[in-house]
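=== Structure Prediction Worksheet ===
Name of assembly: unnamed complex
Input type: mixed (protein and possibly other molecules)
Chain count: two
Listed entries:
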Amino acid sequence: MANRPPADIGAPLAEVDTPALVIDLDAFERNLTALPRLLQGRPARLRPHSKTHKSPIIARKQIALGAVGVCCQKVGEAEALVAGGVDDVLIANEIVGASKLRRLAALARQARIAVCVDDAGNITELEDAASELDARVTVLVEINVGSNRCGVAPGQAALDLARVVTASKHLRFDGLQAYHGSAQHIRNHDERRGAIERAIASARETKRLIEQAGIACPRVTGAGTGSFAFEAASDLYTELQCGSYVFMDADYNKNLDADGKARPQFEQSLYVWTTVMSRPTPDRAIVDAGLKALSVDSGMPAVPDFPQATFARASDEHGRLDISEAVDGLDVGDKLRLIPGHCDPTVNLYDWYVGIRRNRVECLWPVAARGALT
Amino acid sequence: MANRPPADIGAPLAEVDTPALVIDLDAFERNLTALPRLLQGRPARLRPHSKTHKSPIIARKQIALGAVGVCCQKVGEAEALVAGGVDDVLIANEIVGASKLRRLAALARQARIAVCVDDAGNITELEDAASELDARVTVLVEINVGSNRCGVAPGQAALDLARVVTASKHLRFDGLQAYHGSAQHIRNHDERRGAIERAIASARETKRLIEQAGIACPRVTGAGTGSFAFEAASDLYTELQCGSYVFMDADYNKNLDADGKARPQFEQSLYVWTTVMSRPTPDRAIVDAGLKALSVDSGMPAVPDFPQATFARASDEHGRLDISEAVDGLDVGDKLRLIPGHCDPTVNLYDWYVGIRRNRVECLWPVAARGALT
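=== Predicted Assembly ===
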């Protein structure tokens, strides 16, 4: 049931049908190399989060540039990555239920698979699945470092789970998942740094406690595009899970530096390519990208090429641009770029990436793990 | 690249993997029959909007119960419907660009296809495409009846376009698209009725003007699940485009009756089936349905079976339930139902419907037009 690609390779951008998910390949490639360069000399390795792109093609490019492997959130994503040639995957999430755990164990016989835990019963189920398939699974204990999502409290609770993992024959305890998701989007630089410094302190103390109990805790993994500089500077984190840096989005572009300026370290490389489908009044243009082409959970998309236009409202299949003054290039049939508010769930709405260089379609990459929910 | 179904036919609901899109088939079938019953004796025919379900299987059930055909928003949706055995489709939207118009014209050789227009240049392009393929396309002029989205102003502008259509050899003018989308979600009954009454007056006057010019205008089509009773009572609308009535959602369930009570005419039949994947604190449960499993544009999902729990926050792959008091049935591994805030874009995130009756999987239906963006 995959949909046809919205373009042929070699076609000019103007001919790409809309809405489409387009990558500016030059900007994308600069992002791919920029982050490893920023991390040079740091002990932390890059383990990019593939929940952003859901593409083994992009994951392999990241690994070729030095990433230790990638992470993902779902067993189905891990399956798509391994099938696409990725051999080191951290499922940076808890996996619950016998059928998913059996798939995870089976995958661990094909590739290096690690997973997070925050519950003793879940560890038992994971051990049972690994035992049934005679698989070895690497396990990280997730601690809550401030996002109040998954993860046990730092400290003793984490040590207790580490002991359960260590006592499980088919599981190998390797360290801590300490990801502060909500801190990624704190606009103010010092507040963002403060949140991450508290996370680092929690993780450091937990690692100390575990090692003091005689359990090796070599890996501390976490961080994202909004905060990685702080974790990288900690000398505690061994892996950084940045994902959005390859594409960026309107939300990440708003994070502020120490001087109060928004100065993104990465370029916007991902766009939704859309057509003006109606121009009923001078102050309104309707484009063909709405809620099924753009995730608006983190705000409306930006309209980078038309400062006179604001994306004001999304309905299922329509976007409304409010236009403050006369503007060329927004007539019926004209095409334009939008910057999605939030790249990850926007990517998940598409079957294809359309890679653009010098205004031509250079490649078509499937969003291989699109809809990999389980 | 379609994902595997999350269950086998015959399996108990408890074994359906999560997150999954489940239909309570009994409630769904009651909804399917309830709306035609409510319309008995009215001249308006039902033309359900398939952008809700994206399924020719469901469309055929609606037609078998008396619907005159269905509508959709995209050429790709119309292609999936026709391929699935639906022979009368209104694309209740403007279709712009030569490649889409050629596909539309080709489809009009296989089935009865109608489309909306609000621009003279677009009518010329549509005529060119129909001429090239020697196809006949039925055309409705869309008027803006209050949503401020697509559509020309009611009155003279619509007549002008009707004349252009009438002068086009391969196009047949059939009437007006007069859909007030934003009125569907006005909570207050009298305000909602007022908005629709103004829409009806606009459409009535426009039809009069067109007929006075000697152009037949037999069809007036529009309405939705939130407002159809008003349009049905108008003796103007000949078709009603309700879509959400088959499933309902948390947003539609909040619309108020004349007495200020929320008393939905249709039952909630669509759920997201989810698993508690983490229970880190007594007041917090994390489920495996986040932004990629639920559209939150119209608000967070409801938690119908646990009044002590509120779906407080969605991140990409997680939902956070805040729990006000001790509750059984929300331990790690427990599964529960969520009512999506907005059914249409939620359905578009899934490849499969899992039809449930008496707690067993009775059917697996593909979301055939999932991701049909172009």
